[in-house]
Design goal:
Elements (H helix, E strand, L loop, with lengths): L2 E7 L3 E7 L5 E3 L9 E2 L2 E4 L2 E4 L1 H9 L4 E2 L13 E3 L2 E3 L1 H20 L3 E8 L5 H13 L13 E3 H13 L5 E9 L3 E11 L2 E12 L4 H20 L3 H6 L1 H18 L4 E8 L2 E8 H7 L1 H18 L8 E5 L6 H11 L2 E4 L5 H12 L6
Parallel strand pairs: 1-10, 10-11, 12-17, 17-18
Antiparallel strand pairs: 1-2, 2-3, 2-4, 5-6, 5-7, 8-9, 12-13, 13-14, 15-16
Helix pairs in contact: 2-3, 4-11, 5-7
The structure holds adenosine-5'-triphosphate (ATP) and magnesium ion.
Length: 367
């Protein structure tokens, strides 16, 4: 026996969890001590790096940097052309999985018995085939292949995590699962529990894979650049066309966005054209500039119900997860616009935790 991983391969981040012999949940931490590894891959002439290190190298040489490869996994025509060669999406994804496996081995010091992977609801046969290809291509440190007994849907994993954390024993419930990460996925789920077994049944699903956290980054960049313009007269159009400026401001905006999830005010040091300005932004300003994005979430929510001829009143609560759910305005908006109770479910880890719970419940005969 060894550990059974649950791996959530997201558009922006990959993360893994497992359940130990005593039933305790653990997260896998990467070499930098983080539980989430960016799905960035730097395909340089001196080798391949994954995660934060890839992002750091990519800031100087973006032509070698692949990001968000999950978006292309179903696209059989897509290739990433690094100056050093061509890579298919599955080849790039396998570098990411290889990294997560070696992090898991380092972090746990135990043999990995198997891994349950997750995939989004919109993945068809091509997406599943791609995930299997990736699983077959990675190796444990002893040279053995990674055994993948199941690939489950992200919503199924999130619902298992929900059942685990909610400690409720209600026989039946209807919930909206809102996964707002790098993209937006909304599900209406009828969820039943029998003899401790959770069975989520999907009634309706809508998703927008071009909409997500980066839209909030864009809005925050606009606020910051506009304030910088007021102080210096530098035109944001020129600033944002400058690759060096984009490479510098991108990570600062991401940090500022996260700061505004927990603080009322933050600042961003903007450097351009020989000028340095520390630009302050308040949460109120950020929320005002991004209200239209919440309205977009609301519109998709309306579609979710229109598509199945049901109404929000039939849902007991809204389960909110995904990295962008850290922004307090998301839950506040959903609560007031739809008048439902909000359950904030492990924004970063719910899917990998659910996959780990699934893996730990598999009987050996099911393998
Ligand atoms: N503390 C935070 N405050 C605001 N936004 C955050 C915070 N933490 C993460 N995010 C945002 O969450 C997004 C990533 O979310 P998540 O990790 O759930 O996506 P993913 O699982 O990789 O993608 P997907 O499930 O859409 O394929 C990014 O846009 C990131 O900026
Ligand atoms: Mg996700």
């Amino acid at each position: 026996m060894g550990i059974r991983l649950g791996i959530d391969f997201g558009t922006n981040y990959i993360c893994a969890s497992y359940v130990d012999e005593d039933g305790n949940l653990h997260r896998v931490f990467n070499i930098e001590g983080e539980e989430k590894t960016p799905t960035a891959v730097y395909l340089g002439s001196d080798g391949v790096t994954v995660g934060e290190e890839a992002l750091r190298s990519g800031a100087e040489h973006p032509e070698f940097l692949s990001e968000n490869i999950k978006r292309y996994l179903q696209d059989l025509d897509y290739t990433f052309n690094s100056p050093d060669g061509e890579y298919t999406p599955t080849q790039i994804a396998s570098f990411i999985f290889q990294q997560v496996l070696s992090d898991a081995e380092h972090c746990t010091d135990e043999k990995i018995e198997c891994a349950v992977l997750t995939c989004p609801a919109y993945f068809g046969a091509e997406g599943h085939a791609a995930m299997l290809w990736i699983a077959n291509s990675v190796r444990l440190s002893n040279g053995e292949p990674l055994y993948v007994p199941r690939i489950i849907c992200e919503y199924e994993a999130a619902m298992l995590a929900y059942a685990h954390f909610s400690h409720e024993n209600e026989a039946k419930k209807t919930v909206v699962l809102c996964d707002l990460g790098a993209s937006l996925d909304l599900y209406l789920i009828e969820f039943s529990r029998k003899n401790g077994k959770t069975e989520p049944r999907i009634i309706s699903y809508v998703g927008d894979h071009q909409f997500g956290g980066k839209d909030w980054n864009r809005a925050l960049t606009d606020i910051v650049c506009e304030k910088f313009y007021e102080l210096t007269g530098e035109d944001d159009y020129n600033m944002l066309r400058d690759p060096a400026f984009r490479a510098d401001i991108g990570p600062k905006i991401e940090r500022a966005k996260r700061m505004l999830s927990v603080r009322d005010e933050t600042s961003v040091l903007v450097k351009y054209g020989g000028q340095n300005e520390n630009i302050s932004v308040t949460r109120a300003q950020f929320e005002e500039a991004t209200g239209h994005l919440l309205a977009q979430v609301g519109m998709l929510m309306d579609h979710l119900f229109e598509n199945c001829g049901r109404s929000i009143e039939e849902a007991d609560e809204i389960v909110l997860t995904g990295g962008s759910a850290h922004m307090p305005q998301v839950g506040a908006y959903l609560r007031s616009a739809f008048n439902r109770k909000i359950c904030l479910l492990e924004p970063d880890m719910a899917v990998s935790i659910g996959a780990a719970l699934y893996a730990s419940n598999l009987r050996r005969d099911d393998f």
